[in-house]
Amino acid sequence: MRKFNVSSIIIRGVLLLGVAFSAFPFYWMIVTASRATTEIYSVPPKFTLGDELLNNIYTVFESTSFFQSFLNTLFIAVVSTTLILFFDSLAGYTFAKLKFKGRHTLFVILLSTMMIPGLLNIIPQFIMMDTIGWVGSYKALIIPGMVNAFGIFWIKQYAEGAIPNTLLEAAKIDGCTTFGIYWKIALPILRPSLAFLGLFTFMQSWNDYMWPLIILNDPEKFTLMLELTQLQGLYFTNYPLVITGTLLATIPILIVFFIFSKQLMSGITEGAIKE
Questions:
Q1: Full-model pTM
Q2: Right CATH for 64-269 from 3.30.450.40, 1.10.1790.10, 3.90.1150.10, 1.10.3720.10
């Protein structure tokens, strides 16, 4: 019992230390956002909250079109996430449970695309968007990425172990169509994996900077990440303002994470224990 208590205390101490290290950058971001520019260079550094947070928030709102860019980013992230969840779950379920000729070959080709660095696709993709006249439009940010190989792979691996074949056969006997089986039976079972994929996709879309920078040319259509670059001067950067803008942009991600945290943890751990 004594050994168990000591080991338990050590494990909990290590976990608490890990939590502290993980939470410290976020706390330091709040501290920096609450300070003036001259205060962040003080030695030794100040680890307590300052009294400039409200002023910095007000300055961010005054210096940028924060709410407009927030709505732009929210629209792009929600639409992109919805499309990816639908098409990736449909393709993943198809690869996992439907038998058709060339299934394994197509899946290998699909996985091989994951080995291509994303930066290599920027120039060809931009030329394609320019050719069809989508430069400057949200369509160039949403349509090309509405299906991705990682999402299909993730859903396929989850569906293979989570959806019993006997359940699908019973649905076929009852006269349910192929799409009906996917919509009424597969999707509810895939909910934990969809929660993980949805949060992952939403975060990627929300934090995307490079592709919107290349595509968008109208300041009224700027995403939040692009709008925050307006806080950086040519010869001088007010870092507390930049950090304040980053803090405000992080809050929606935290809210989404806390809302879907239960489904996220279920999606990660599902299938770890097998009978």
A1: 0.85
A2: 1.10.3720.10
